[in-house]
Amino acid sequence: MEQPKTLGEFVIEKQHEFPYSTGELSSLLNSIRLAAKIVNHYVNKAGLVDILGSTGTNNAHAEEQQKLDVLANKLFINSLINREIACGIASEEEEDFISISGMKKDNQNKYVVLIDPLDGSSNIDVNVSVGTIFSIYRRISPVGTPVTLEDFLQPGINQVAAGYIIYGTSTMLVYTTGHGVNGFTLNPAIGTFYLSHPNMKFPDKGKIYSINEGNYVHFPLGVKKFIKYCQEEEDDRPYTSRYIGSLVSDFHRNLIKGGVYLYPQTAKHPNGKLRLLYECNPMAFLAEQAGGKASDGKRRILEIKPQKLHQRVPFYVGNKEMVNLIEQMIQIYD
Ligand code: AHM
Ligand code: MG
Description:
The chain is 31% helix and 23% strand. It is an alpha+beta fold. The chain folds into two domains: 7-197, Fructose-1,6-Bisphosphatase, subunit A, domain 1 (Fructose-1,6-Bisphosphatase, Chain A, domain 1); 208-333, D-Maltodextrin-Binding Protein, domain 2. It is globular and about 60 Å long. The structure holds 2,5-anhydro-1,6-di-O-phosphono-D-mannitol and magnesium ion.
């Protein structure tokens, strides 16, 4: 029986896709892989050791932090700092970016990493899938100097790599470097990720819509019309409604089965809830690489020029036709 490729082997094999590659990106991906395995270990132990629940503190967005959020944040940041393979990090859990090149003078690295260490963390206490999202850019400021805010405020089209880890019934790492999307499943007995989902693409037709319908009254009229369209009895409709409340898990399911994820503006979140840099850009890069589309209702997510680190945007991502229809409805009705 032929042995499936490991993530480590795959990363090395694909290194040639980058002209003048020094192996720095490969090392970076390897470090994320390692941190993912450690976080996975803790996520799996949730309930056994004292890591469930809230820390009693708030994060950069005045949201309650879960203990596992804080732990995952530390694990990813330490892994990147210790291995000295990035020059800067921005995290959804940190107010400001971290300049590794500012700490260590001889740091010659050229990549910055942006992470949402544990997305969907309100699901941890109830044993529902959560995820980690990461995004990698080449720095704009000169190598060898401290990183600056502009290294992080780049439009998503500049991403060199992006991906997520889903801590689900099995743990998977899914990523792209702009040459398609590949998914790897962790064999927990051996601690190795194996290529299980090569060249992932959205199915031709999407029939799932994922949205927190509890906020319905606050949605833009175009989004309400789209929801009603999904529920109508016509052709292959009504579609199926599925919402986990964990972006990584909802996106992952829709990528495999075909569907769209929506988080519009609401009364509580007038600009949308999801963060452009940590959540929307990486998912948009993956979606486009898988033949899908990502929009804020009017613009391509990847072309938005970020104004600040923790910027939020309305987010529509999934099968191209479904996102196109949402855009059309928003254009007509809003
Ligand atoms: P988080 O980064 O604080 O976990 O918030 C992001 C999450 C997404 O994973 C998820 O899709 C969304 O928030 C759920 O929000 P809501 O509970 O409002 O439906
Ligand atoms: Mg998040």
